[in-house]
Amino acid sequence: MIIDFRVGAPLQGSGQPRRRPATLYGEVYRNVERPQTPVRAPQEFLAMLDREGIDRVVLPVEDNETILGTYTANETLAEFCAADPERLIGFAGADPLKGYEAVRSFEHAIRELGLRGLNIGPFWQHISPSDRRFYPLYGKCIELDVPVILHASVNFSLESQMDHSHPRHIDQIATDLPELKIVATHGGWPWVTEMVATAWRHPNVYIDTAAQRPLYLGLPHTGWGPLVHFGNSVLQDRILFATRWPLLPFRRTIEEIRALPLKPEVVEKWLGGNAARLLKL
Fold this sequence. Notes:
Largest sheet: 8 strands, parallel
CATH superfamily: Metal-dependent hydrolases
Number of helices: 12
Structural class: alpha/beta
């Protein structure tokens, strides 16, 4: 079973953007190969997954309405995932700056809409994930027994501190809330050693590889060595394959994972076994 733990849902966002944030994302990802034919309908998306050999995907959305004015409604995601809820696993968005309204909306998304987790990009809110305003959402995740995805790598916003994504914040959260299941997305670079240490310390912390080419994970002097080394041993049960499609193509990324210096059984854990266990499939 191959499970991609972070795929960009082909959905239309909502809200009225207050402004265009200053970022380097367009420059960094300018060479992304977009699908020649845009994928919009759920059945088109599922057919693409079949062609690419992907069994299941996690589709997270975000709510950044307070700062940016934009969000993707959880109802929109739920409607898309309803086409095949076994294969399309939706993670709700929530804006911690909305206070308890965000908690109520998130609980509705899990209990009533059938979504399966929470996704937050704290740097878009210009605060760190260890900020107290996130904790009611984390508590609800524990109550509902679902994971939370937190950004844990360099961000390319020119209006938000890079430090908001440092693994030290995840270490603090996991220390405070040892029952919370956390997925640190994007692998932790450039703080890979700290990310690995955090996951080693806390058995409920997972690391996904979203938007990071496995080709570079296996090259020397890139900073990724600790993730590959420890992901082949003490953390082999907590690394999750993710493309962040369309930023990375499915098939090539899988091939590059298989080419890493990993034990065969570890490759299968990375590609789907660990995600299946985390998601209780």
